[in-house]
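pasting for the record
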Amino acid sequence: MQNETIVAVATPPGVGGVAVLRLSGPNARLAGVAVFPKLLQAPPRRMMWGELRDGAETLDDALAVWFAAPHSFTGEDVIELHCHGGRATVAAVLAAVLAQPQVRLAGPGEFTRRAVEHGKMDLTAAEGLADLIEAETEAQRRQALRQLGGALGERFESWRHRVLGLLAQVEAGLDFPDEELEILSDARLAEGFRSLLAEWDSALQEEAGRKVRDGLSLAIVGAPNAGKSTLMNALSGREVAIVAATAGTTRDVVRQVLAIDGYRLEVADTAGLRDHTTDTIEQEGMKRAKTTAKAADVVVWVADARELIMKGGLFSKSISKAVAPVLKNPPPAEVLAEGRGLVVLSHADLMTQELPKNLEIEGTNYPVLALNLTEAGAAKRLQAALLPLVQAQAGLAEGAAWLTRERHSAAVREASAKVGEALVLCTKGTRNQELGTRDGDSMAELVAQELREAAFAIGTVTGRTTSEDVLDVVFSTFCIGK
C-alpha cells in the first residue's frame, strides 16, 4: 500500500564489507532519523557519517543519505543506510527500522513498482532494470541498458500514438454520421492500418531480443570419434566432456554455458551420428542429438579430415542425410555465411592436402574451419569462426529495441488481431452499406472499439494502460530490495 513505508536489504545476502538498507515511503525520513539521528539535520542527497542506533544502543558506525520526494528512485522519500555487512549487524539494523511505526518489509520488486506507479519509469524500463541486474554477458548488458533507457518503451508508445491517431480519424465518423462511409473508405486510413500490421508482423518475427536475453544454443554434431568432445573442451577451456579413442564415448547430451564476444551461448556436445547401430542406448543418444541440433540456433558439424580425404574428397556425400537438413536454415541475406552451420575439419595438422575454406551441402554454402583441436590457439580460432553465425542469430542490430519477453509479443499479437479486424470492418462497410450496422452500432463505432482495444493492448506493455494483475505478474520475478 502506498501509505506504508517499506524497507529491504538492497545488497546480496551474506557477509560483505558494506550492506545497504533502503527505505521508501511517507515515514521513511522519520524512521531513518529514529535509527540515524544525524539525518535530522542532513540536506537531501548529502551522505552523512554517524551512529546507527536502536534507542540508546549503538548498532554500528555507518553512512546514510536522504532523497526527498519526488527526486528519488521511487518518487517517494527514500533513505539509504550503508552499514557494515556482517549478518548480525544487518539483522540488528533491519530489526530497528522495522520497529518504527508503519514500516514493513518490501515485497519482490516493490521499490521498482513504486517507481513505475509514480511515473519514474515505464514497465519496459523496469524489465530492463531487472535484466540489467541479471545480465551475464556484454550483449545482455547492452540490450538491458537500452531497454532501461527507454528504447523499447518509445517503440511501443509510438505504436500506441499511431493507433490513437487512427482512432481519432474513425471517431470523426461518429461526430458526423453523414460522412461515416467517406471517412472509413479513406485510403489513408486503410494504409495506416496496413502499415501498423506490417510493422507488428515484422516485430513478431524478430527473435534477436529474446535470444540475447535468454542466450543462444549451439549444437556440436558429427560422426562418432570425429572430435566433438575435444571441440567442446576447447571452447569451454576445461575438461567438460570425456575424450577417449573409443568411438561412442558420448551417449547423452552434455551441456555447458559460455560466452563468445559478449553473447551467452549454451553449447551441447551430442552423441555421434552414424547410419546403423543395434545398440539401443546409442540409438537413443542419436535421437537426442538430432533433436538438439534441430532446435539449436547454430550447428557445428565436426568431421575427421583424414576420413574425408580417404574417401576421395567427397565431403558432401559423407554427411549423414539426417544432419544436412539440420544445418540448412539460412539467416538474413546480408550475413556472410549462407547457413547457420559451421563445418570443422579436425586433425587438419596431419594433412598435406589443402583443405577447402567453404563447403556446399545440398545447395547451401558453409564456412569450413580446418584445425588441430588440441592446439593452443584452437579456442580463439573457433570463436572467431563462430562469431558471425552467433551475431546473425542475435540480430547484429545493436541499436534495435527488440521484444524481449513473451508479454511483449502477446500484446503485439492482440493489437494486431484488433487492427486487422478493424481493417476488415472498414472494407465491409465501404463495400456494402447494409453491413454497416451490427447490434445497433454504426460501423464507425465497431471499428473504433477495435482500435480502443488495440491501444489498450499496446499500452499494457509500457504500463500506460494496465491492471493490477499485469503489475503483479511483472514484479513477481524481481528480487527483494529492488
